[in-house]
Amino acid sequence: MMELTRKGEYAIRGIIYLAQQPPGRVSLISEIAAAAEVPQTFLAKIFQSFAKLGLVSSSRGTGGGFVLARPASTITLREVVEAVEGPILPNRCLLGSACDRGGPCRVHAVWKQVQTEVVSILDAVTIDTLARSPDCKG
Amino acid sequence: MMELTRKGEYAIRGIIYLAQQPPGRVSLISEIAAAAEVPQTFLAKIFQSFAKLGLVSSSRGTGGGFVLARPASTITLREVVEAVEGPILPNRCLLGSACDRGGPCRVHAVWKQVQTEVVSILDAVTIDTLARSPDCKG
DNA sequence: ATAAAAGGGATCAAATTGGTCCTAAAGGTG
DNA sequence: CACCTTTAGGACCAATTTGATCCCTTTTAT
């Protein structure tokens, strides 16, 4: 359980690639897709989400493409994951104040704890850190 | 992301009910399903998994039903969740030693950390604790 | 104008989720 | 034994989600 989907994985790979480019360098979606080994049309959707959320900025037309909208050191893994997968939410009942049935939410506190912990782990990792980390082949 | 499915939620509700019964008391699946407000046939499948894994013991025929196979204080929330949802696995790459593409698994260590943390939270909660916890209506 | 990008909607196949149904097997009871 | 009760297990099914693809529009540089 709790698996990241392809979308999430692609999102991470794609934005890491962007973060590895020289500052200000514009990348085409085709270029990012090739480098990250992700289906291009799918990645395009992902980057649309990024753009809407202000993680990357996009420009159209000749010479257009994508650039990080903020320094990589200020973009957290959590933001990237949540951008495409929605909020970290181990159980629906963490949304409303009350749990579904007329009452018991014995596990509520546990899910809350899981949520808090996962969020804090993902918030502590920046895209910059990931982009600089060595590949661990083999 | 990371949402528990209905199956997981039903599993927890069902086994909590069992844990609330007087020791040794046999419960019918129909009874558990009604109490936990879960579709009976679906819950039956869930309890089949429990039985195979030795969380509950089952007996057939008249007077048959389900009982916890071990003291509720030795059954952790993690066991229950994993019984029906599979292992806590934030990313596939935590299975094999290497990550998919010829190399980079920059986020590998992060997912490992998430996995470890979640497992430890869920392992710290026993069904007994949940069964005794007060309902938090409203 | 035209070509090069991203934006956005529609669509689609495959997998997963959430369940039902039916028959078989096992265990009591008269 | 025949019969009833109860779980076991397999087949099946609808709805949703996932993982894409396609096509047309919009923006922008030349």
Could you characterize the architecture of this molecule?
Chains A, B: One of its GO terms (cellular component) is cytosol. Two copies of one chain form a homodimer. Chain A has 138 residues and is mostly helical. The first copy, chain A, has helices at 6-20, 29-36, 40-52, 77-85, 108-123, 127-132, and strands spanning 56-59, 65-68. A two-stranded antiparallel ribbon of chain A has the order 1-2. In chain A, α1 (6-20) packs across α2 (29-36), α1 crosses α3 and α2 crosses α3 (40-52). The first copy, chain A, binds a DNA duplex (30 and 30 nucleotides) through α3.
CATH fourth-tier homologous superfamily of chain A: Winged helix-like DNA-binding domain superfamily/Winged helix DNA-binding domain
Which percent band covers the strand fraction of chain A?
5-15%
What is the CATH class designation of chain A?
Answer: Mainly Alpha
Q: Provide a count of the helices of chain A.
A: 6
Largest interface: A-B, 47 and 47 residues
Helix content, binned percent of chain A = 40-55%
Instruction: Give, in spatial order, the strands making up the sheet with the most strands of chain A.
Output: 1-2
Number of DSSP strands of chain A? Answer: 2
In the predicted model, the low-confidence regions of chain A spanning at least 5 consecutive residues are none
> What kind of sheet is the major sheet of chain A?
2 strands, antiparallel
Termini of chain A, distance in Å? Answer: 26 Å
CATH topology of chain A: Arc Repressor Mutant, subunit A
Q: Secondary-structure element order of chain A, as H and E?
A: HHHEEHHH
Shape of chain A: elongated
Compute the gyration radius of chain A: what is it?
Answer: 17 Å
Global structural class of chain A: mainly alpha
GO molecular function (chains A, B): DNA-binding transcription factor activity
GO cellular component, one term (chains A, B): cytosol
Protein name (chains A, B): Rrf2 family transcriptional regulator
Pfam family, one (chains A, B): Rrf2
